[in-house]
Each structure stands twice: as structure tokens, then as C-alpha cells.
Design a protein that fits this description.
four-stranded antiparallel sheet; two-stranded antiparallel ribbon
Length: 147
């Protein structure tokens, strides 16, 4: 940060997004920074396999059309306020609208709250890469004030 009289200015390299919106990342440098500022239902381990993040577990029906995520307990935003399932579902619904990167949103029929700690993805067709895709910024769970 550079101080210029009574005004503070932040200088960022290249085309770093002013708000670093994880839904609109177009430059690899943005992603490198943003990946530390958001979380998804799942994450990827060092082998690229889905592992729990905000969701502590998930189940997939045999027809591969329903994916149910059970949320971890005690989830909080960076400002210290408690995350609600409704906030998470709304963030996912915004993600479903699609981003510059996703081609998966047209396969998701709906995202619904099942009970107080479960979210259900209803798919139009089997979508094998869904879990892996949910680990990327296209499906980031972001604070309601940024939606």
C-alpha cells in the first residue's frame, strides 16, 4: 500500500481484478490469490481427488443424478459471523448461473436445502466431474454481501 497524501492506494500487478471475484477470474494471477480467499463444498488433495471442505461428507445415488452434501459444523465467514445453509445455497445458485469458465451449470437442474445441514444437487444427467469441479472458483462459496 502506498500513501498519497490523505489517500491510500493499493497497486496491483497486471490485470488483477479490483474485487478479485472468484466467479470472474480471467487471469491466472487472480486465481493464485483468490484460491486462498474462498472455499468450496469440497477441496482437492495433492492427487486431485475430492476431499471434504465445507461439506464433511457426500453421497451420490446409484443413478448419479442426486448428490447430497452434509455440511461441517461450526462454519464461519472471515468476519466471524456464522454461515447459514441458506447463504451457502444462495451462493451455489449464483454459481449455477454460470461463469466464464463453467460448462457444468447446464447439467445442474437444482440446488436445494434438504435439512438444516444438507444440500442436494439434482442433476439433469450424470456428471462425473461434479465433485472435482466444485473445488474450483466457479463454485466458490462467497459472502452474501458479494453476490
Amino acid at each position: 500500500m502506498v500513501s498519497s497524501g490523505s489517500r491510500n492506494e493499493i497497486y496491483t500487478p497486471y490485470a488483477f481484478s479490483e474485487l478479485a471475484d472468484p466467479y470472474n477470474i480471467v487471469w491466472a494471477g487472480d486465481w493464485a490469490v483468490c484460491q486462498h480467499n474462498w472455499a468450496g463444498l469440497v477441496d482437492l488433495n495433492d492427487f486431485g481427488e475430492p476431499v471434504p471442505s465445507l461439506a464433511k461428507s457426500w453421497s451420490i445415488t446409484s443413478d448419479l443424478l442426486l448428490v447430497t452434501f452434509k455440511l461441517s459444523n461450526h462454519l464461519f465467514w472471515s468476519d466471524g459471523t456464522k454461515m447459514t445453509i441458506d447463504q451457502i445455497v444462495e451462493s451455489l445458485r449464483v454459481s449455477k448461473l454460470g461463469t466464464v469458465h463453467t460448462d457444468l451449470s447446464d447439467a445442474v437442474e437444482s440446488i436445494e436445502r434438504k435439512v438444516s445441514d444438507e444440500i442436494v444437487f439434482r442433476l439433469k444427467r450424470p456428471l462425473p466431474p461434479l465433485l472435482r469441479s466444485l473445488a474450483y472458483s466457479d463454485w466458490a462459496i462467497v459472502h452474501p454481501s458479494t453476490l
